[in-house]
Write a structure and sequence with these properties.
Elements (H helix, E strand, L loop, with lengths): L4 H7 L3 H4 L35 H14 L3 E5 L2 H9 L7 E5 L4 H11 L5 E5 L14 E7 L11 H10 L3 E5 L4 H4 L9 E5 L13 E5 L2 H14 L5 H12 L1 H20 L4 E5 L7 H9 L6 E6 L2 H10 L15 E3 L11 H7 L5 E5 L5 H13 L6
Parallel strand pairs: 2-3, 2-4, 4-5, 5-6
Antiparallel strand pairs: 1-7, 6-7, 8-9, 9-11, 10-11
Helix pairs in contact: 1-3, 3-9, 4-5, 12-14
Bound molecules: pyridoxal-5'-phosphate.
Length: 386
Amino acid sequence: MSYEIATRCLYGDKKENAFDRTGAISYPIYQTATYEHPAVGQSTGYDYSRLQNPTRQHVEDIVASLEGGVDALAFSSGMAAITALMELFRPGDHIITDSDLYGGAIRLFDNVSEKNGIKFSHIQFHLDKVEDFINEDTKAIYIETPTNPMMNVIDIRALAEVAKSHGLLLIVDNTFLTPYFQKPLELGADIVIHSGTKFLGGHNDTLAGFIVTSSEEISEKLRFLIKTVGSGLAPFDSWLIVRGIKTLPLRMEKAQQNAQEIVAFLQKQEKVVNIYYPGIEGTESYEICRKQATGFGSMVTFEVESKELAHHILKATKLIPFAESLGGTETLITYPTTQTHADVPEEVRIKNGVTDRVLRLSAGIEDSRDLIEDLKQAIESFEGSL
Ligand SMILES: *Cc1c(COP(=O)(O)O)cnc(C)c1O
């Protein structure tokens, strides 16, 4: 019998595997660095926690189950996962990415991976034709969908076909929608990335990252890397992510509903000139998202009429913290220009639409009336002139 996703958030694929031999309902935190060997040449299956630890393995099994992968690897942060991923490539390899991407990924690609000889083309997948950028050194396509922060939706199935026909890996960062709403491996992607810090952990309290793959061969290479580079997730942090995932479906639904109510409120505000949310009907993003996902998520980016108003809102919200990060129980608002995307070159930022009037909001699970009241007083208390 295979379980539905909400059940898999608790037990993974099989309840029998979800418990250790004590039957503890909450999986134990195996706070150990090393393990006794029964005899020479024998192992309990655990030798040293850099290689594997039961609590880490438990969270990996659950994430692999949710994404439908053959394997998932848990890292100490999303960036640690992406850094390990880059070790699959060699000097001279070329990767095509979106220019609208988590700022930390762009910082890694442009400053660290480039230095190691990997080449990147940052394109606009919703406008450009990816085939025009593929050359003989191209090895992979790396995207987020919806993109961060502009919320453009990319057709994963169509892109997977292009990738396959050119022998490229398709890598999808699925942080924003999570497997609760979108399963890129089922749509043809080879590798899924997560910042587990965000919705999977879900409480703004733990850093974590995941790589999930549908390929045994890639899994084997990644297993070698995680034990070699040593950035696996610690036992306690693994446990916190296990606990977070238990409520993923409830949080995703509530946060999405709050996001939709906030969008409806923003649509009535004269001083809000653009709203970027894939759940708004009549947009291309809406049509693609409806085909490949079961929800639109809880990330809302919006543009107000002046930089002064944007700055004012960040200062004037009383309930909603001005803070980076997303996907947690608390609604957060941030300013991509100076925060999450400060390392993206200014001309790229502007071309993508990330102006100094753009704010990004991650809806949490509060009562939406309090969130809307807070945004309302923040917008209405602005007295500056244009
Ligand atoms: C936050 C984030 C990352 C980086 O993850 P960390 O856990 O902060 O290292 C990568 N991708 C996306 C889409 C993110 O939002």
